[in-house]
What we know:
It contains eight helices and three strands. It is mainly alpha-helical. A three-stranded antiparallel β-sheet has the order 1-2-3, with no helix packed on it. The longest helix is centred in the first third of the chain and has 15 residues, at 3-17. The radius of gyration is 35 Å and the shape is rod-shaped.
Amino acid sequence: MDQRKEQRVCIRFCANLGKSVTETLEMIQQGFGDQSLSRTQVFQWHARFKAGRISVDDDEHTGRPTSCTTPETVARIQEIIHQDRRRTIHDIAGEVDVGYGTSQRVLTEELGMQRVAAKFVPRILTADQMHQHVSSPPTMKRSRLGSLLVTRAGFTVTTLRQSDNPPSGKAPCHQDQKRQDR
């Protein structure tokens, strides 16, 4: 029998004999030493037995199970992500009915996914768009302001050289361009 159950049986016996809570606590500590229940636990169980409780077993606990990471949960989260990769962890947790931390742990540890921040790439690319983006060589042009325009698979990125930016931090205007041309 579990040592906690043994102590509860002893507490029940003392309560039935009419012993006080303090006497019961001293007897439990003397009999079980370092492995004895805490003072609070002894007082609670003594009060329960005095109130008419018979069972020494734990009460049933309600609520969510301690571990929600089941194969069914992992499969369901994976299915949701494959349907729409833009779903947030909060949305996934609500739909699957698990906690935020569990959803995050399933995504990162179980499914090996991670967040990727890619500038200048839209959030959803079809397979054809992804292939075109990766396989097409970039084309470069100079604009009339001296900035470099890079076009790749329909996306344009503009970069300015540092010499194009005046010390004031303002963008060069048409007047400044005319002065540079002279």
